[in-house]
Amino acid sequence: MNTLEILFYALSAFAIVSAVMVLISKNPIHSVLWLILVFFAISGHYILLNAQFLAIVNIIVYAGAIMVLFLFVIMLMNVKKDKEPQKQNLIKFIGVIAGGSFLTLLIALVKQTSQLQGKTVLLKEGTIGLIHPLGKALFSDYVVPFEISSVLFLSAMVGAVIIGKK
Amino acid sequence: MPILNYIYLCLTLFSIGVIGVLVRRNAIIVFMCIELMLNAVNLLLVAFSKMYNGAAFANAPTSTIGIDAQIFVFFIMVVAAAEVSVGLAIIVMMYRNTHSVDINFLNRLKN
Fold first, then answer.
1. B contact residues 73-92, partner A, Cβ 8 Å cutoff
2. Confidence of residue A11 (pLDDT cuts 50, 70, 90)
3. Whole-angstrom distance, CA of residue A28 vs CA of residue B27
4. Where in chain B are the domains?
5. Which fold has domain B3-102?
6. Minimum distance, in Å, between the CA of residue B42 and any CA atom of chain A
7. Which of B17, B82, B59, B62 is nearest to A153 (CA)?
8. How many pairs of residues across A and B have Cβ atoms under 8 Å apart?
9. ipTM, 2 decimals?
């Protein structure tokens, strides 16, 4: 087992354990903090795949901006941790069974797909994750969607202000 | 690293997100589980991008095959940021009206 495999399995276990803790934490603030750890683990995976630009953007946008927004909202609302009524145990059990069978179905589907057998992922090499090729592609082939996304941001900002005002 | 390992990891993360949407009643936690599902999809897109690039890497080390997936991931992050700002504004408005973030109160369409 070489270093890359050890890193892959460690990051995967870290991500899955943190994601489970997001689910079972009673306090919403703890859930947000665990979710930030999931995002850091996923950024580690991006670095392992040599997608450096996406790793940095993932940390800045998700862990930096979006989760801070979640924390702001939770602290504004002052949600008591035991105020949230829990679902009945039967409903929880049915939900876990449904999600588990969804996972089993997808894994069985992937296992018998012949195109995916024996394919490998290029780790720590390759240049497409660096900022130079990505910037070239973004501003030549994808310049129209890039400009349209600015309109999307403007409309999201106006919408959030109008909904949040009143 | 086989692509199947990445697929299993991303499917597990996605299913944890699905279970969270099904079992939790706090609207903010449900929203966070949706973010978790988006991130699982992002990781899978980057893994497939490196899979296709790795096939071409042996012949041409500077080939940009597979770069489209990483651009898609960038746009998914852009759209997720816009979606979160509007969604959290909706949750704050719902809290102001009902003084709760319990999604079971939002059943007025039922009758």
1. 73-75, 77-86, 88-92
2. very high
3. 10
4. 3-102
5. Helix Hairpins (1.10.287)
6. 9
7. B82
8. 240
9. 0.90
